[in-house]
Amino acid sequence: MNRFTTVSIVSLFAVAGLASADMPTMGGPMKHIGVMYHDEHHHLHLHVDGSVATPVLGNGGGTYMGAASALNGLMHNAQYGWMVEGFWTPPAGSSIWIEQTSATPGLLVFEGGMMSMMGSHTFAPIFGTYGSDTRYKWNGMMLHNWYAAAAPGAYTATYSVYFGDSSGMPTPGYEASTVTLNWSAVPAPASLGLLGLGALVGTRRRR
User: Fold this and answer.
1) What are the respective helix, strand and coil percentages of the chain, to the nearest 5?
2) With contact defined as beta carbons under 8 Å apart, do 179 and 203 qualify?
3) What is the rounded end-to-end Cα distance, in angstroms, of the chain?
4) Which of 10, 24, 34, 129 is the most exposed place for a label (fewest CB within 10 A)?
5) pLDDT of 200
6) Nearest one of 73, 69, 147 to 108, comparing CA atoms
7) Whole-number Å distance between alpha carbons of 126 and 104
8) pLDDT in tens, 167-198
9) DSSP H or E segment with residue 83
10) What is the distance of C-alpha 199 from the center of its chain?
11) In this predicted model, what pLDDT tens digit does every residue of 33-77 receive, in sequence order?
């Protein structure tokens, strides 16, 4: 084995090592979905932070341990964060519910939490992923779920936020609000580089 081939193999394992981590990265700056309640009109209002660009589902090829292994082999992102704006509480006997009413086929969603408390993220499938309930009972704490996909492309998901009872039935007299979120899925450059290095090593071996 000559020096060139040895260096290529070392580089190959270096890139592979970079693809492994204990926990996934968010993918970029937080992009909050502000949830406000106008009591006088019994109406919820949603606002998406427009100062942050459309999130990219990337970081593909990472290998994670434990619950985070749900993202293994998938492009993913957790920039979108549900956040209560202002000081208000749900009507008596009601909770805040988020329901995914539509989504691009192939978009997967896993339960997250506050980014400062990564250990609390369950990575359980939600919003219809793997047959889970399309509704999610939200406690009002900042919530950064993990969105993922296996194939490149553009993805969207529409959500309805409303007040409901413990079973998710809407509370009469209160109006829901909807929002559509967007992503683009792009394979990570590291994954492409890994494939290129593998091909380079194979070429040198054949010479």
Assistant:
1) 25, 35, 40
2) no
3) 11
4) 10
5) 41
6) 147
7) 15
8) 999 999 999 999 999 999 998 665 444 444 44
9) strand 80-84
10) 32
11) 999 998 877 889 999 999 999 999 997 667 899 999 999 999 999
